[in-house]
Amino acid sequence: MKNIKILTLLIVFAAFYQTDLLAQSITDKDENILKTLNYQDSIIYKKVNGEELKMIIFMPKNKKYKKTPFMVFTHGGGWAYGDRYVILKDLFFKPLQFLLDSGIACASIEYRLNRGGNKVVDAVTDCKDAVKFLVKNADKFDLDVSKIGVWGGSAGGHLSLMTGLAYDRYFKGETQLAKIHPTFKCIVSYFPQTTFTDTDVLHATNYLNAKKLEEMMGSDQTTAKLLSPVNYIKKGNPPILLIHGTNDTTLSYLNSTYFLSKAKEAGSDVTLLTVKNAGHGLNGRDISPSIDEVSKQVSDFMAYHLLNR
């Protein structure tokens, strides 16, 4: 029975690893977009085993606040692909534009990808360290450490939840950042995986070699629990907005409805924006609400919690 549960867990990871639609590298279009923005690129926030982990910080062109509120973006790509430029893709770029127009900065971060022995635990640790780095260097980047949010999609949606909810003591990173414990005003998570232990939720139709998946995470059920955002739900968590399509066959819509139900039981502030007829990445015909409408709701949620609370 234990082996069956482990195999089920590994199959679900294939959905991230094989088909994440958000995992693309920078294009000429992205470079043209960057020319229109105020940003600092290739900021190294951490070095691990000779690997430099970088972020790009987008700043408002017009400063509106003494210190600048900011969001941190965690990209998708099944933990194995993707980079900091994913934020320039259509699904996330409109909220980014809104943030900047509202006087809010945004840092898009990279993390150790699942290659060369890196695990998902390492990705979570890096995301947490990236936020801690920004807090430590807040004066340098003109950031308001009392107004921080985190957002991302797919694997990045999972990482946004883990970054904002999971306990730092389980993900020990850079020693010089260990005493920094950021607090978050909000979390936005697009079509995430929210549990790796509940068999009713572990639903996917994309498969990959089980041995390779085990290399991603290992077969320890304790690790599965550790990496399940649903296990960190409690009253007093920052407000969370989930966005999920009803036709998602990569990461089932059940991920978000399950998370929402557990949040209601705990009295935690979680909102689910359901996108009818949408698959993973909110792809599909006749989806409702539209991408533009989703972007507006996401933007309004982030601005409200960063600026008005």
Account of the 3D structure:
The chain is α/β, with parallel strands linked by helices and 309 residues long. It has a single domain, classed as 3-Layer(aba) Sandwich (Rossmann fold), CATH 3.40.50. It contains ten helices and eight strands. The chain has helices at 2-19, 28-34, 90-101, 120-136, 138-141, 155-165, 210-217, 221-226, 254-266, 291-307; strands at residues 39-48, 51-58, 68-74, 105-109, 143-153, 186-190, 240-245, 270-275. The chain has an eight-stranded mixed sheet, with helices on both faces. Helix 3 (90-101) packs parallel to helix 10 and helix 4 (120-136) packs across helix 6. The longest helix is centred in the first third of the chain and has 18 residues, at 2-19. The radius of gyration is 18 Å and the shape is globular. The chain starts with a helix and ends with a helix.
Question: Which key features would you list for this structure?
Answer:
alpha/beta, Rossmann fold, 309 residues, AB_hydrolase_fold, 8 strands, globular
Percent strand equals: 15-25%
CATH topology: Rossmann fold
Distance between the termini: 48 Å
> What's the overall average pLDDT, rounded?
89
Tally the beta strands: 8
Task: Determine the structural class based on helices, strands and strand pairing.
Answer: alpha/beta
How many structural domains? 1
Any guess at the CATH architecture? Answer: 3-Layer(aba) Sandwich
For the record, what CATH class applies? Alpha Beta
CATH homology-level superfamily: Alpha/Beta hydrolase fold, catalytic domain
Order of SSEs, N→C?
HHEEEHEHHEHEHHEHEH
Keywords: Hydrolase, Signal
Domain BD-FAE-like: 57-261
GO molecular function: hydrolase activity
Signal peptide: 1-23
